[in-house]
């Protein structure tokens, strides 16, 4: 009987599902990240010296340096050279995290309808979450934000600033959420609305913006948050998002029609 092995035979389902082995540098980078969490390291704290990491992981200098470089690219570590240098814990800024996520979506077709499909679900949740932590300083910030766009703009720059401030109102609400993941998701959607090309076209349109009902929703929201009425907070924000979606989609259609007519 032949003992030759037929290498063309298809692999079993279990073999197909077997995860690929990670590079040694990736394993070390993940281990360092775990150490940062377990030891509650703060931004500016120094990581162990390179030689200590080499001994800890039984790895070469090149492998450890590559792992640290990977963490630096991720925005989790800052590497200083020279006297007093080394690897130090860094906290990735929200701006950078959103920029990286935005880069991932850059080549994908993200629409206003896509964004509002999520906003209509998440904004009421984040408002209820924020209601539990927001203080008088927070309410003051919300009122000051409304004051930026509660009147007609004097010029194109003020019109743009007002549209950005309308989104900033929701960003302030999200800042007070007790759920960091929810807050980030909501603020990222607001960032998308600021960066999306079609939104730029909409925000730059010279026609007056019908925002009075939106402002009424926001003032009602502040009142409900002060009363700690979670159901009312959620209902008001849901209605606000439904109106905002309706207005944005209508403006999107207007911009598209003008482009076709031109």
Structure description:
The chain is elongated. The chain is built from twelve helices and two strands. The protein has 262 residues and is mostly helical. The N and C termini lie far apart (79 Å). It has two domains: 21-89, Orthogonal Bundle (Arc Repressor Mutant, subunit A); 95-261, Four Helix Bundle (Hemerythrin (Met), subunit A) (Up-down Bundle), CATH 1.20.120.
For the structure shown, list the relevant keywords.
single chain, 262 residues, mainly alpha, Arc Repressor Mutant, subunit A, Four Helix Bundle (Hemerythrin (Met), subunit A), 2 domains, two-stranded antiparallel sheet, disordered N terminus
List the helices and strands and how they pair.
Layout: H1 13-17, H2 24-38, H3 50-57, H4 61-73, E1 77-80, E2 86-89, H5 94-105, H6 112-131, H7 136-149, H8 156-175, H9 180-195, H10 197-203, H11 212-226, H12 230-261
Antiparallel strand pairs: 1-2
Q: What structural category arises from helix and sheet content? A: mainly alpha
Mean pLDDT: 87
User: What is the CA-atom radius of gyration, in angstroms?
Assistant: 25 Å
Distance between the termini: 79 Å
Q: What is the beta-strand fraction?
A: under 5%
* The CATH homologous superfamily of the largest domain: GntR ligand-binding domain-like
| Uncertain runs | 1-5
Number-wise, the strands total: 2
CATH class designation of the largest domain: Mainly Alpha
Helix content: 55-70%
